[in-house]
Amino acid sequence: MQTEPAIAGSPAPAPLAHVGLSSAEAERLLKAHGPNVLSIKQKRKGLLRTIAAALLDPMALMLLIASIIYFFLGDRFDAAVALGALIPVVGVEIVLEGRAERALEKLAELAALQARACRDGSWVRLDAARLVPGDLIELREGDVVPADSEILEGTQLLLDESLLTGEAHPVDKRFGCGERALAGTVVLAGRATALVATTGVHTEYGRIGALVAGVAPSHSPLQRSIQKLFARLAVVAGLACVAVVALLLLSGQGLGQSLVAGVSLGVAAMPEEFPMVFTLFLTLGAWRLSKQNALARKLTAVETLGGTTVICTDKTGTLTLGRMAVAEAIPVGGCDARRLREAAVLASEPTPFDPMERALLADAASHGVDVESLHAGALVGDYPFDPKRKLVTHVWRHERAHRVFVKGAVEGVLAAAQIDATERARLLSENARLAESGMRVIAVAEGALAGPPSGERLRDESALRVLGLVALEDPVRPGVMEALAACRSAGVRVVMITGDHPLTAHAVANGLQLPHDDADPVITGDAVDALDDTSLAARAKQVSIFSRMRPEQKFRLVKAFQRDGEIVAMTGDGVNDAPALRQADIGVAMGERGTEVAREAASLVLLDDNFATIVQAVRGGRRIADNLRKSFAYLIAYHVPIILLALLAPLLGMPLLLLPVELVFLELVLHPTVALVFEGEPAERDLMTRPPRRPTAALIDARSTLRPVLLGLTLTVVSLAIYARELAMSGELIARAMAFVALVVGEALLVLTERSPGLPFWRASYRGQRTLAPVLAANALALALVLYVPPVAEAFHLESLSRMQLGAAVLAGAAATLWGEPWKVIRARRTT
Length: 832
Known about the structure:
It is a single chain. By secondary structure, the chain is of the alpha+beta class. The strands form three sheets. Strands 1, 2, 3, 4, 5, 6, 7 and 8 form an eight-stranded antiparallel β-sheet that branches.
């Protein structure tokens, strides 16, 4: 729970006839009513559900079947071994599920909806889940209403209730007459103090949400393709099992041995790792991104990030610090600088959260203006920001006089006010001068009303007089220049979209060294409106600076890029940015200054509002995609010899080379290797110096599959040759032991070859890779345990090997796997 920061000269809002709860009373009510959970989230599996899910895993089912078959064959020892093998299999599932679950819990904590409530007499920011009936909350533009609440007081509250009613028209709410703001609705304009009535599942939103609690989230195209691959391979594995059993029965082998061979092939061939690895990578990738201040609200965003080709970014607060300071105040028409500053204060919110308004209040206070006294009057009219004219209007009553105060874009204020041609020309000239130096310029105007506001905005703004201009400067964020350079190297185009003056936008772009055409650098929102969709797509290819842009124009621009085949990341912070954020492939909302609506619409939230964080997120997405490719190549190379050895040995009339217990051992090597080694693999050196992955490109294509398949085939041939030779010379147990050692050594060395597909393993970087050595050491220790501890070797149907036999098996496995490394050197020389 965080106390809201005080603004100089602006007291915290206080209800007229109500007081907030004490912390103790709130805690008591929280225990009685339960947490205020608006979103319907999937429940955690829990330990028992995880165990049940693991037992339903295809491999676990195969082991159960193998255990039953061994039991009916009278081989109770092997039946117990097969049954005992379930323990480590289930254990691995529990560990991996727990690791992913902890990452998801951390993400859920970061993504929690926030609310402003009055506790112990002070306004504080807390998780909306801790709200209880009787809490006083403050609602501001852009907020998602966190609970069904009675509206007590405020100004010009306009709500979007389409989520609940389906009606697209905004709803104007009255105060003090029992009207409610319903949970899940959006504050489009105005502000209010409200009393929480019901929370969580007792709200209208909660009752609707309960109906859809069981609806599963949709899957990305890559997820669906992996699931299809899994389903097809599972069918093939099942058919192969049946075929092997039938062929062995026809060849005269007994039913029991034929069934064991079929089950062994099923355990080897079932590709259950593919969807598990994909989900695990995305979950842990999202958790890693959150540690870099990028919160992935949707796991599929992690996958998409690596292919981003265009970043459409706001300027203020993203490329710049968003900590505006007044640099110059220019009064006109006989007004002095003090009066200009007073009018700017009265055209701002009494408790502002916008950086510009905070700067205006701080500047006025530093020049001797009594901000608190100005705000002691009654704010009797509050017209929100008009996105077309780009201005905001307040009507104040001091004593009996009513006055109108307006601030906004110079063009919008000049169009609304009365001003002679000479003063207009002077203001436009000053505006151009200031904008060319990279400053943000606003105009301020005021007017008098004969009585209370009419409620008709244009009527109340009909007698405005321009008081002058205020120029604000906003320093560039540290690290943004380097981030833009990284984007250029990575082939990612950056487009700046801002509401500022074209000259200001151009000046900032020059200062940031943002690539653009100086002959035709900027397109304005009005120019965008004049273009049809085809023309806009053509212009978007050439121009990288868009100024005076409205939200609907941002939406059109995103669609224009997408029509051209681009993968678009779009930043936004306001309510009206939500359509563009949803349309973009990666909607990026601001975590500090963004509205709740923008954050809900986005797939990625920047917790620090920093453009450099977007670039880090793209880097993280590319790393994840690279490591997924490596892990899938490893899975393919790994499965080829396991499947073929389980299939060929019985078909060639040999005893089973891989019994279920050996297959379990290999499975326990596989899961930790993929999950721990490849997921934690550091980024490659050229990660941000190569172009983005094409949107239509497969995660792993046929060409990339060829090398791991060939490695798997050679390892199959070598292991099978050793087995056949030693069967004739040394017997089944020694033959199986030597072939098994060659296979395990080869699979371990596959990690080295697949983590550096373009370089031989001795030239690859091992900096930052902390899990490779421990995992390989653990595999070697496990292999020694299997070979040289008699009870374990007996369970695996193996026999201890002599030094010469062990050395021969190790060399065979290494030769079968590492033969491709010299070819990497030759290929690298040919391409340089």
